[in-house]
Specification:
The protein has 279 residues and is mainly beta. It contains two helices and 21 strands. Strands 4, 5, 7, 12, 13, 14, 16 and 17 form an eight-stranded antiparallel sheet that branches. A four-stranded antiparallel sheet has the order 8-9-10-11. Strand 10 and strand 11 form a beta hairpin.
């Protein structure tokens, strides 16, 4: 390629392709051949290249259409399903009351891809103190119960088992005092007693190197009284970049957007308003 500068800022380019005749291209920015409507250009400029961020327009509202999805786990709401589509490790979202003591926790789960199965945390009293049921763990060869404490995890019991992709499973956990039981599709897989772990705590959902989806969450006390049957909103990194939630309700990324892939669902609660903001 040879380049020569012409008067009046005209740029001439000679392109030499192997075995072909030279092609002469000339660009003259002083000549206008057509106009692009500024509204079309602005939309293209912002949403395709994200180039407006940092400019006068971009400084008003960042990530306006939620195109920059959360990092880490990619939890979204799709209708009646809570979906985690990334293959990140140790992805969890928690919900419920840390004061819950003895209860039964059931949920339906499906693996959409990845190397393992499902993580079902329960009796979580604080971020580092909980149990989880690990289904299809250890490269999808075992089911087991692990206790987390002090930044580490202890394997309490395992049994051989694997999780298939594309199939819905029904998972049930019963926590009663020091005794923990678990069933998969009605078949008992875990029954142990642990006197060292928490006797109360919230519940959660998670995954490890696996794309998963959950539905039909239900937590009851041992007398059968309902504690919750509401599908949780994603927590933690679930909001798009630059956005934070305020107020007493919940908010999380969801699908079904008319422009792009992501929308945000806001669920209000009594006692005040709920919304999104940038600070």
């Amino acid at each position: 390629m040879s380049t020569s500068w012409w008067p009046a800022a005209v740029l001439g380019l000679t392109v030499l392709a192997a075995g072909a005749q030279p092609i002469q291209l000339t660009a003259d920015p002083t000549q206008t051949n057509g106009l692009i409507d500024e509204r079309v250009y602005g939309h293209f400029f912002e949403h395709i290249y994200h180039s407006a961020n940092g400019g006068l327009w971009g400084d008003v509202v960042w990530n306006r259409s939620f195109e920059e999805a959360p990092g880490g786990g990619a939890w979204v709401r799709e209708g009646e399903d809570l979906v985690q589509s990334s293959l990140a490790t140790n992805v969890t979202t928690f919900f419920g009351d840390p004061a819950w003591t003895d209860y039964e926790y059931t949920v339906e789960a499906r693996r959409d891809g990845g190397g393992e199965g499902f993580l079902i945390p329960f009796r979580r009293t604080n971020p580092g103190n909980y149990y989880w049921l690990n289904l299809g763990g250890w490269l999808n060869v075992n089911h087991g119960i692990e206790r987390a404490a002090g930044g580490g995890r202890t394997i309490l019991e395992t049994t051989p088992g694997r999780i298939e992709s594309g199939r819905w499973y029904t998972i049930r956990i019963r926590a009663e005092g020091p005794r923990i039981q678990a069933w998969l599709d009605g078949e008992p897989i875990i029954d142990l007693t642990d006197n060292a772990g928490p006797r109360a705590g919230a519940v959660g959902l998670g995954s490890w190197n696996t794309a998963v989806r959950y539905r039909n969450v239900r937590v009851t006390d041992l007398a059968g009284n309902l504690l919750t049957d509401e599908l949780p909103m994603p927590t933690g990194s679930a909001l798009p970049r630059y956005w934070t939630r305020y107020g007493v309700g919940q908010a999380g990324v969801a699908g079904g957007a008319l422009n792009g892939d992501n929308s945000v669902v806001i669920v209000g609660a009594e006692g005040g308003e709920t919304g999104l903001r940038q600070v």
